[in-house]
Amino acid sequence: MAEIFELGIAGIRSGITAGDFSAKEVAEIFIARVSTAKSLNAVLVETPDHAMAAAEATDKAKASGEPLGKMAGVPIGMKDLFCTEGVATTAASVILDGFTPQYESTVSANLFKAGAGMLGKLNMDQFAMGSSNETSAFGNVISPWRRNDGGNTDLAPGGSSGGSAAVVSGRICPAATGTDTGGSIRQPAAFVGITGFKPTYGRCSRWGTIAFASSLDQAGPMAHDVRDCAIMLESMAGFDPKDSTSLDLPVPEWEAGLKSDLTGKRIGIPKEYRVDNMPPEIDALWKQGIEWLKDAGAKIVDVSLPHTKYALPAYYIIAPAEASSNLARYDGVRYGMRDLPDGAGLQDMYAATRESGFGPEVKRRIMIGTYVLSAGYYDAYYTQAQKVRTLISQDFDKAWESCDLLLTPTAPSAAFGLGEKTDPLAMYLNDVFTVPSSLAGLPAMSVPAGLDGQGLPLGLQIIGKALDEQGVFNAGLALEDRAGFVAKPEQWW
Questions:
Q1: What's this model's pTM, rounded to 2 decimal places?
Q2: Residue 362 and which of 12, 28, 65, 221 are 20 to 30 A apart at CA?
Q3: Is 386:367 a contact under the CB 8 Å cutoff?
Q4: Please, are residues 32 and 57 in contact by the beta-carbon 8 Å criterion?
Q5: In which order are the strands placed within the sheet that holds 444-451?
Q6: What is the dihedral of CA 484, 486, 487, 490, to 10 degrees?
Q7: Of 193, 254, 208, whose CA–CA distance to 70 is shortest?
Q8: Spatial separation of the C-alpha atoms in residues 121 and 297, rounded to whole Å
Q9: Distances in Å between the alpha carbon of 206 and those of 7, 83, 106?
Q10: φ, ψ for residue 302 (rounded to 5)?
Q11: DSSP 3-state assignment of 9?
């Protein structure tokens, strides 16, 4: 039998059910894994007591014959964007230093109700703004992967869910929560060779999740494989009356519906995703993915999403605009840090608190957002971006007339070294393949499918129709079965 720390959600759950080991044993092993992985800087707050309490509750329930939840005995990592009762929550920003929520986010509450325990709060890009986990106020997360060139360059785990990606890939946690605004689950999943799923907008409640861009933010699972993501999403999702954007729909049994036979399914290949200067290895993997889906019984069709080239500019108007509004609440008055210079008035306190509390990337996006929402530029920028967003959604609607799912690369490159991308525009281009589906609110996932010449993971992305998580899971499973991706980082930390 595999080492317990190598197991994912399904493996842990099966082992506990069969009596191969106890939930307490699982918790103890992963608590130790977390404590010995500090050099990755992926865990901001360790919560061993929470993980152990959940494990003991699972063992007690099993001993008494009570039915176990879908996540029973599985200790997970929690991205530091989810408010957790009694545990510090900072969104990786010093402006929330000292903030300890007295309430639980709906997503974390759902997972705990399903039996999961929490190993710790995970590092991330500050307020989820970034693609490399280099904007955290608490230092960079380091990917557990290394290039095979013999060097020891620290690599980016992707962002903003970089801490989540690192702990799952390094087998430090069997699974973790992430959030995806423009690709922040899928891109890091591709960088570290794990599976990441962004559900339809509204599937998971945003209540108790610190907001970046409210019309885009969506929670999702990051795990070893497709099945684990299906199990975890079933526990995370559900209607929440506290969130006005929450979908009042039953949660399907995605795990039970998993199948890799795609007979009768049409897979679209959008020509606009063949961007200039695409690395040959990614293009080759994409072509291989097409062959894998053909082998699964799917029919391949060419489709066009003509407004794709406008997706990134529209996103980087809409998301900063919403961020500038959401982050206005951090003023030093009610919670978090307060910078009050001697003799300062209220406005001076606001300015000083935000100057010292927000990082450079957060300030950049607030400034962009405030600019595009200002009286003289609202119609020229924000209104136009919303019109483009509608056109992008209509492109997808048109594509669904001839296909059921789309196959694309997840990211335009493999993981890059920390500090290698200093130009913000170059960094924003990491989201070129993930942003369109976010703007349209569609479900999408990244599946690890191969390695580049440096031995680093590459992912393929499946995009589906709204509410067709099952179709996305099934196509992802077809890719997973055929890719046979088993690579993992060698432990050096």
A1: 0.96
A2: 221
A3: no
A4: no
A5: 43-46, 117-122, 75-79, 175-180, 218-223, 195-198, 444-451, 457-464, 405-409, 266-270, 299-303
A6: -170
A7: 254
A8: 42
A9: 29, 11, 7
A10: -85, 135
A11: helix
The DSSP line for 427-447 is HHGGGTTTHHHHHHT--EEEE
Report cis status (omega within 30 of 0) of the bond before 14.
Answer: no
Active site residues: 79, 160, 184
- Where b means 16+ CB within 10 Å and e means fewer, 130-155 reads bbbbbbbbbebbbbbbbbeeeeeeeb
Helix (H, G, I), strand (E, B) or coil at 449: strand
Q: Rounded to the nearest 5°, which phi and psi values hold at 189?
A: -60, -40
Q: Which residues pair with 218 in a beta bridge?
A: 180
Q: Note down pLDDT in tens along the chain; length 493 residues.
A: 579 999 999 999 999 999 999 999 999 999 999 999 999 999 999 999 999 999 999 999 999 999 999 999 999 999 999 999 999 999 999 999 889 999 999 999 999 999 999 999 999 999 999 999 999 999 999 999 999 988 889 999 999 999 999 999 999 999 999 999 999 999 999 999 999 999 999 999 999 999 999 999 999 999 999 999 999 999 999 999 999 999 999 999 999 999 999 999 999 999 999 988 889 999 999 999 999 999 999 999 999 999 999 999 999 999 999 999 999 999 888 888 898 888 888 999 999 999 999 999 999 999 999 999 999 899 999 999 999 999 999 999 999 999 999 999 999 999 999 999 988 888 988 899 999 999 999 999 999 999 999 999 999 999 999 999 999 999 999 999 999 999 999 999 9
Beta bridge partners of 380: none
Give the residue among 250, 175, 167, 252 at the shortest CA–CA distance from 219. 175
* Buried-state track 413-436, b at ≥16 Cβ within 10 A, e below 16: bbbbebeebeeeeebbbbbbbbbb
Instruction: Output the six-digit token pair for 128.
Output: 């989820």
How far is residue 314's CA from residue 473's CA, in Å, rounded to a whole number?
28
